Sequence to fold (134 residues):
Amino acid sequence: MSVRALPNPACIVCGPENPRGLHLRFSREQDGVIVADWTPTRDWEGFRGVIHGGIVSTVLDEAMSQAVSARGWPALTCELRVRLRRHVAPGQNLRVRAWVVERQRRKILTEAALSAPDGQEHAHAWATFLALPE
Fold:
């Protein structure tokens, strides 16, 4: 199986060409942290009034992937842990932030947080990425 390290315009989270995607637009802050604003819609509910935890996890995973990619390291998620602290509601304005903690040869450790404008954290994630062989 071949893995493309190039941006995918059909990505479910950030792809502008995916009609069913989330269309998040990531940017890099001066300190290297990756950020995106997200206002989920009812399309992503699990229970009524609650965004599905799998969607929240996907957003966090993609943000961490963007943080790794911004360093020029093609890599794949090999382990993901998510702590859901508060429910995420449709129409809620949120910001996802992700950063690289450290790199140990091919192993890349990352973290991400999903927070409301008042700073309340709704979810936090930790992931290990495995850099693709050159």
Observations:
- The longest helix spans residues 53-70.
- The chain is about 15% helix and 35% strand.
- The chain has a mean pLDDT of 93.
